[in-house]
Amino acid sequence: MLRYLRPLFSRLLLPVGRLLARLGVTPSMVTLVGALGVVVSALVFYPLGELFAGSAVITGFVLLDMLDGAVARASDNTTKWGAFLDSTLDRLSDAAILSGLMLWFFGGGENPTLGCVSLFCLVAGFGVSYIKARAEALGANCDVGVAERAERLVILLVAAGLGGLDVPYVLPAGLWILALLSGITVVQRLIETRNRLTRPRRTAGDTGSV
């Protein structure tokens, strides 16, 4: 869904990427600072119940993390290691956000039901990412699903932020929607991967018609 906006974001962020590249900032530096900021913010603000402030700070670091690709393109420094590092730290950042919410719900938030929903979202999020990575390692494209990382982050941060402003029902609704969409995406990717890996391969003698 939101992946269709990536070319637009890339063009908008490129001037900033060029500026950072001229200042000697590397893509890995941007990735590390962005991920560290998300992890620390999520595990400090959320367990204390500071959901709006935490969501605002996390959003800032998420936007910063988006600059690593722009810096890489501006400095012509796109590497497989950089892509691996970015993907790995994205998973840790997502886990930290949901872990922070879990700590709040099982602690001061006194809502173990939403704590369990947050745990499900965490596990399903890892499943969504792992299925794609494993499928592509086996040669099957698996770029499908109603809720990729961008969609999941938007739902989660908006719900948590508005929940922190005491907007009723938004946070529970957001988490249940996130859980539903994450579960659907896992199933979609499993089906897509199965179809691609079990599809009969044509041989050189196939004519393509009967």
Condensed summary:
The protein has one domain: CDP-alcohol phosphotransferase transmembrane (TM) domain (Four Helix Bundle (Hemerythrin (Met), subunit A)), CATH 1.20.120. It contains eight helices and no strands. It has helices at residues 6-22, 27-45, 51-65, 67-74, 80-106, 112-137, 149-164, 170-198.
CATH topology: Four Helix Bundle (Hemerythrin (Met), subunit A)
Which series of helices and strands comes N to C? HHHHHHHH
**Gyration radius, rounded:** 19 Å
* Average residue-wise pLDDT: 87
- Annotation, overall tally of beta strands: 0
**Helices and strands: which structural class?**
mainly alpha
Provide the CATH top-level class: Mainly Alpha
- In the CATH hierarchy, what is the superfamily? CDP-alcohol phosphotransferase transmembrane (TM) domain
Which architecture name does CATH use?
Answer: Up-down Bundle
Total of domains: 1
Q: In what range is the share of β-strand residues?
A: under 5%
The number of helices is 8
Unreliable segments (pLDDT under 50, ≥5 consecutive)? none
Distance between the termini: 38 Å
Please tell me what the overall shape is: flat
Membrane topology: Multi-pass membrane protein
EC number: 2.7.8.-
Binding site for Mg(2+) 2: 65, 86, 90
Keywords: Cell membrane, Lipid biosynthesis, Lipid metabolism, Magnesium, Membrane, Metal-binding, Phospholipid biosynthesis, Phospholipid metabolism, Transferase, Transmembrane, Transmembrane helix
